[in-house]
Amino acid sequence: MSIEFIERNTIRDAIEQVRDDKNPNMWVMLGFEGNENWRKCSFNQVSLTGYGEDFNDLLNILTPTTVGFILVGIEDIYDNIPTYRFCYIYYLGDKVPLISRGRIGMKKQEIERFLGKYNVSLEYGEPSEVEFETIKNKVADASGSRVRIVENNEISEDRKISSFHSTHSKTALKASTNKKKESVVYQPKRNQKQKFTTSNKNVQESQLRFLDLEDIKFAITDVRNDKSSTDFMCIGYSGYKSENEIREIKLIAAGEGGIEGIKDSIRDTSANYAIVRVSHKIDETLAVYFVAIYWMGNGVNPLWKGKIATHRGAIDSLFEPVHLTIMANDEEDFDLQVIKKKIADISGTSNRGFSKK
């Protein structure tokens, strides 16, 4: 059954106000009708929860039992030109009942389409996680306004400079001599030390247990290494038979297979997290973007899906910074051309986004 948007025109007007760079309203939030009582909630009816020009007002209505579909307008400075971009936030409170989470997931995509185009998507589960500066920085990272871009003539065929600093070291993986690059199991050289620069506070404080955290960190750093042929890494759960297995993360694979390497590493019955390095040309310059892919196979037990959703913050902390995060349950969701289109959108090289006058 399709969703009924209560007072549809009012909701549309609130969304358009956020999209209007001359209007002071900078956020709008939609929610399920009657979600103050999940036992009586109508998952087929969506209403306007609120909108406004003060981000703190949005924070005040987020609770551990709230579900919100939020669009935020952010001014981003790109080459000294102010540009208005949009961030979509899916807020799923960590106290929302597991049985409700499954029904929410089935309605999520239709609500996202109703909100319209956006440049960055984020997910949160606790009010304390939602910070304006963090969101603004994510938008800046995605648009390329904080990306280090190099001129085309500075890049040879076998060397691309990444957007974020990484410590250079010899890769543990050798380039494939085949025309089709194969994904390989990652075997890091333990005598090679690389600096891991991401904040891992949430990783340490989460209920997740990383079975081989040092190898995972090494793989992430190797993907970021501009001298390494490694262009993807993928992690996943140790199993799906018990709650203990759902709390254990291990390194699945890493190598130079790119998107295809990730696809070889996932299953319809698995949940995985991956990073891939993608090059994108802007006029006569070339930038390297890092894309996080969060995979949830359609065959994963719905009860585990609710548990897995609470791990997002820890994985975000492990992977950050990335330019783009893609939530996927179909391999077509992260085809290379789909990713490049999204990169073009967030970098301002397509028609999405517009300059303020």
Determine the fraction of residues in helical runs and give it as a percent range.
25-40%
CATH superfamily of the largest domain: Severin
Strand percentage: 25-35%
CATH topology of the largest domain: Severin
Q: Roughly what is the average pLDDT, rounded to an integer?
A: 77
State the helix count: 11
Which architecture of the largest domain would the CATH scheme give at its second level? Answer: 3-Layer(aba) Sandwich
> Which secondary-structure class do the elements indicate?
alpha/beta
Radius of gyration, in Å, reads 21 Å
Low-confidence stretches: 148-201, 351-357
Number of strands: 14
Biggest sheet: strands, sense, closure? Answer: 7 strands, mixed
> How far from one another are the termini?
42 Å
As for the number of domains, it is 2
Tell me the series of helices and strands, N- to C-terminal: EHEEHEEHEHEHEHEHEHEEHHEHE
Protein name: Coactosin
Domain ADF-H: 1-140, 207-344
GO molecular function, one term: actin filament binding
Organism: Anaeramoeba flamelloides
Features:
Severin; 7-stranded mixed β-sheet; 2 domains; globular; about 350 residues; alpha/beta; disordered C terminus
